[in-house]
Amino acid sequence: MHARYLIIGSSHAGREALAAIRMADPQGRLVMLSRERHRPYSPTILPYVVSGRSDPRKVGLGSVAWFAENRAELVLDAQVVAVDADARAVRLADGGCWTYDKLLLATGAEPVVPPVEGLEGVRYHVLRTLDDALAIRARAATARRAVVLGAGLVGMHAAETLAGAGLDVTVVEMRPHVLAEYFDPRASTLIRETFERHGTHMMMGRRVERAAGVETEACRLGLDDGTELEADLLLVAAGVRPALRMLADSGIATDKGILVDTRMRTARDGVWAAGDVAQAPGFPTGAPMVNGTLPEAVEQGRIAGMDMAGDDDLRPYLGGIPLNTYGFFGRHAVAVGAAAAPAGDGVEVVTDEGDGYCRIALKDNRLIGLAAIDRVMDAGILWRLIQRRVDLGPVRDRFLSHPLETARALMSRGWR
Amino acid sequence: MASQDTIRFISERCDGCGDCMTACAKAKGSASRVAIVAGSDGGWEMALCRQCGDPKCVANCPAGALDKHRDSGIVDWFKDLCVDCHLCTVGCVYGGIVFDPAAGHVQKCDMCDGSPACVPACDKGALEHLSAAGRLHEIHADKEDMFVPGLSACQGCNSELLIRHTMRRIGRNSVVAAPPGCIPGMGTVGYNGQTGAKMPIFHPLLTNTAAMLGGVKRQYERKGRDVTVVALAGDGGAVDVGFQSLSGAAERGERVLFICVDNEGYMNTGMQASGSTTFGSWTSTTPVGEIGRGKSTDGKYLPQLLMGHGCAYVATASTAFLDDYHAKLEKALEASRTGFAYLHVHAPCPTGWRFPAAMTTEVCRRQVETNFVTLWEFTPEDGLCFTRGVGRPRPVSDYVGMIGKYKHLGPAELERIQASVHRRVEVLQGFRRRSTAAG
Amino acid sequence: MNQLVNSSRKIVCDGNEAAARAVVLARPDVVSVFPITPQSSLVESLSQFVADGVLTAELINAEGEHSVLSALQGACLAGARTYTATSGPGLAFMFEPYIRTPGLRLPMVVSLVTRDMLSPQCVWGGQQDAMTVRECGWIQVYCENVQEVLDTVIMAFKLAEHKDVLLPVNVCHDGNYLSYAVSRIELPAAEMVDGFLGEPDVNWHIALDPDRPMAVDPLTGGTGPGGAASFVGYRKSQVRGMANALEVFSDIHVEWGERFGRHWAPLVEEYRLEDADYAIVTIGSMTGAGKDAVDAARERGEKVGLIKVKTYRPFPRDAIIAALGKVKAAGIVDRSVSFAWDCGPLHQDVMTTLFASPHRLALVGFIGGLAGADITSEHFQRVIELTAQAARGDVSASPIWLNEHD
After folding, report:
1. In terms of domains, do B120 and B264 share one?
2. What is the C-alpha separation between B8 and B221, in angstroms, rounded?
3. CATH assignment at residue C273
4. CB interface of C with B, residues 189-228, below 8 Å
5. Is B198's Cβ below 8 Å from some Cβ in C?
6. pLDDT (tens digit, 9 = 90+) per residue, C88-118?
7. How far is CA A28 from CA A4, C202, C404, in A?
């Protein structure tokens, strides 16, 4: 079977690419392959499926009508196992084959399972798919003690959810701080302390060395400091990595992820990549980075789709900027850019804990990162200030004392 | 997508009193969704949802809790679906969707069902509610209507609307040619010593409008007078017998604005077919009978041919999208100072096409929503640019089904129309300036 | 070039160039052109004059004669003095705006470089094109030689723009025999022509001008209030303008003679007619050969004269009656045919005119010079013989086709 546009992956990057292609080319056959048996959804929604906040029947990212309107075909249960960029073809696990004119790899990421002795013999969970979420939710209904390996976004979301479900939750993180990819140590500490106040055990700087099954789904874990933990729900949330296995021998250059340029083109003609699987130029240096956030997936997907369809309005990718928003126990945090950048080497850091927490990192009077807890911030405006390298010199003091209002005034004046 | 209503902020009038925020908070029972902040120079600035055309907040939502309403254009937020991830706030570069700690979730402006509470609360006039119609009113209301009241167009005809809008913008320093058709037929040029127009207007032949206007313009150029010359022609005077002189004037780059008001036939004289009449259309010369099935060939698509002439400006327009039309009229007028400018405006005819007079604008809109009519502009430098996306059309049956002149058509004929709509879009896409896209 | 145009001097050129040089002297604002045989060298000359800066008019290279005249209509309504030239099929293609021009009372000058009409296919001279449009409301004048072409084109502007006339004028010169015939002519000084013509004032009555907004040519007529009277009013004044042209054109010729020293008969020229028993009637370039034949016959003692018709529309009835009143027979030579009347158009007009006169005389009709054929002195010799025979009471059956056996 042949498609002019073949998209592998059905989450944000694939969805945005699909919409962008259809803006420029209403006709060319467009097929989206998903390894899922469920209709497309966002991985970001999964912790909320676990918690029961989101109805798994209502988390769809693309309704049947939406695909019909866009004249796109969605093929579920299609696990791509190999890409042949010479033949412009992909092979499926069931032996099927699709040929294409233009291919987008938006296959996302898959969980990393750390090398823990005995883990293979234990019933543990990961949280990357809707089925994962449903399994955890089912298990949480009867479990009493949960251990979460990893204090990244997935682990922290899950820990909060499981605590909310009444479980006794322990988080084990080998690094000293929670959410260390996004937040500076002080912000991480504030977040960790909140978890601790809500009864979650936060074991930082610890490593699980052994795991052993106890009964059906329970297990016993041995930590590097000798601590023994028992859990009847073990969630491995030690991070994700781009899903690259299908690319063996494809000639598509990879590093941590699939290397792409500012139009999301890979090393092979006719192949694009976007979203969590891609390693695109980072801001401001252009050095390739895997920046697996939802907003970046949206941006990269859109650019890939426009380029695939030859849309003249395309503006090349300006580079990935780390960025996240995070709600926990009724509090909220935001981190944009190099929010954890240490002071020195030209970087100036101003922190303010007067009302919540705010840490601003400037370089040459330009914002390079900001982290805040319980402070209302317009993350999108801050992102734009960083990306445009807006000179804050004239309003520096005001910005440091009133970042929200000053950023809004700059926005209102600057891109009115 | 429908025209988007927005709230305009006039910074110079704002004194920072905050009455708008009070009104918003009161109306919504929560924190204000409009934020006035101090500017760096002592003035005031505003953050508010712009109800963007391509909203990034919607794209960034993993839960389907945000959606741009197809008709109102308003970006709606659904509390039930929201999971408080705040990723929408990352997408918005206007501070238009913001976490409200008191409410525990994000908030955004919903335009208060069409009458925003903040706007009347501002007695300084710093906030203006701009609907598309309102914006046009603001720009053009004080200008003189160049036609007298009581033109005798058929009920529901959009040509009168169009020519009033057009000439209100262009004004008295103009010469207008209205070749035989509905536009003079409604009395613009006049009868027996009375005229319906306030600017110089004449009744050229059906065949020679562009040439005659070219001659008018040349003489004014020779005299050093800046006079705008405009054709308000029908499709017959452009597509059929008017084509040669139009083509010649376009080739010569005469500094003329030629507006073709295309009602796809000779509607003024009893609905005979023209070269612009579309496939399957009943007309009085392509009737439906035992054998006849309406017009057996596709219409001639004139704007594409004008592109081929390398005119300074070519655009299509629909009166359902008047803001788009006005933007194009501006560009066409500017282009007509240095070369030939051509506007092709689609004019569904309630009388001749057999649909209720009250439905004209809806028919116009549906033409565009189905890609039966596409909105684009062209300059030799930039190529063709769609001014409204062609990516997600409704099926053409949604349009054809509204129109009586197509009511005899069967599925096979409908399929043919759908196919030619697709084909035309593809052909037009080929006129876009190509990037260096791969593959 | 400038010197050539601006000094009164003698030059050698053909009729097409003479017309073009006349146009330069008339200083039109807008000239629109499309080439067609045998007019092409005329518009080539005009184009070259514009390219050389000798003629400063706006030049519109239109895509066909229909647009040529249409553009000029627009320009004229905006106040321009205008000019073009055409022939045969070009005139046919121009017909739609052509027939509208007199009703709009637009004082244009258009040279018709006359050509026979298709079919049979032909590209040569003949007056069938001009004669076909003789009832369209344009003034038509026919020239005898290259100098007359030049002088008449200039005079035509003054005639067209005269406020008692205000009608378009066709200056006709024969394809081949005048278009390409080279003569020595005198080119008047530009400033003298400026003084003769004055500034154009062509749209005082009807204009497309934002300073004087009006609706040009709204619907008129029908049975609505005042409709019929309004239409009749316009039509009647158009006919009156046409009638006025005879006197106005005569006055213009007098003035021309006074200023430039060349005296042309404005309507009808009488040549050696005073003591003639009979006469031949000619139109256009054939007149020269006709005069030669008359001279030769006079040498032989024949009492023959010649009547040359210059102004054909409006038809100079009084002048024709006066001239024919002097003879007992006339041989009328047409370079075209009237299909309805089995004679030439001029012949038909003469017959019609004589109905208003008590004088009766014998008429013999000749048709010659179609499709580029020559009407030679020998042909005229035969015309004279047959007319003399008619004067003696032996009237041949008309028409006699002069080139039937050539």
Report:
1. no
2. 41
3. 3.40.50.920
4. 207-210, 212-222, 224-227
5. yes
6. 999 999 999 999 999 999 999 999 999 999 9
7. 6, 61, 72
